[in-house]
Amino acid sequence: MKVTDHIKNANGKTLFSIEILPPLKGENIQTLFSNLDPLMEFKPPFIDVTYHREEYVYKKKENGLLEKRSTRKRPGTVGICAAIQNRYKVDTVPHIICGGFNREETENALIDLHFLGIDNVLALQGDAIKTEARFMADPDGHKFASDLVEQVVSMNKGKFIDEDLESAAPTHFCIGVAGYPEKHFSAPNLKTDLKYLKLKVDLGAEYIVTQMFFNNKKYFEFVEKCREAGINVPIIPGIKPLTAKSQANILPTIFHIDLPEELADEVEKCKDNAAVRQVGIEWAVKQAQELIKFGVPTLHFYSMGKSDPIYKIAKQLF
């Protein structure tokens, strides 16, 4: 079932959903299941599965020269989506990204997802690889998430790269895209960022999931500005409970977000990460309660592979 249908069928009730990371290469999928099993108590209608592009490493050869090798540390997104749907009978939302794919590879990946009965995708530009200062598209690949949205929409209409295909069966993906309450780091300002977000919606994106935020005011203002700009699709807030003291510095750096002074001060007082986790849980519960009162369609939790804090938060909400 499509994400938008789940939201519609909820009749105004706030749903619970999560985003998970594929296991590191070599790890067992049972570790993932052991984290997901407790969260099934809260009946998530859908689960997002992230996609991680390749990285490049240099291996020293016997002659002393360095050999550049491509590696992907967290493969398995498509397989994990299929496994989750089979085990839990829960819809999945695989992330699809621009980086590392050309248009035909993207088309083939979408065909695989379609054959597996997956109804949703989250279309993202994706990150630059660590050896690049900025995102670089593959030859014949997509530079922007809006280009990716266009390709999925075309396939939903039965239009494939090979224009000579006869009677091509259309796909039926519900397309989600990312939104940034504190603006995307590459955008010069929020107004410009909203212009490109509206473009993705106008092209066919049906819902938005926000980057994590820790100040609900930022989300409320973002929704208001989206509506003023004519963006009327559901806007799902992304929530990340703090679990370690280091995250107070790491998350703002990586995700280009702000931590409220009150939260930063509370984390600073913590003597260990156990205390930080408790602060993170309490902060996320307050955030969530206010968001539910606001009437958000879904509370979307970024698990980062850790289910215990999210379980404790959801237990107080659902």
Protein described:
With 318 residues, the chain is an alpha/beta fold. The chain has one domain: TIM Barrel, CATH 3.20.20. The protein has helices at 3-9, 29-39, 77-88, 103-115, 145-156, 190-203, 216-228, 247-255, 261-269, 273-294, 308-315; strands at 15-20, 46-49, 55-60, 66-71, 91-97, 120-124, 174-179, 207-212, 235-239, 298-302. The longest helix has 22 residues, at 273-294. The radius of gyration is 20 Å and the shape is globular. The model has no long low-confidence stretch (mean pLDDT 92).
Strand order of the largest sheet: 1-2-5-6-7-8-9-10
Instruction: Examine the coordinates and then state which fold CATH places here, giving the name of the CATH topology.
Output: TIM Barrel
Number of strands: 10
Name given to the CATH architecture? Alpha-Beta Barrel
**Percent helix range:** 40-55%
* Main pleated-sheet profile: 8 strands, parallel, barrel
**What separation lies between the terminal Cα atoms?**
22 Å
Radius of gyration: 20 Å
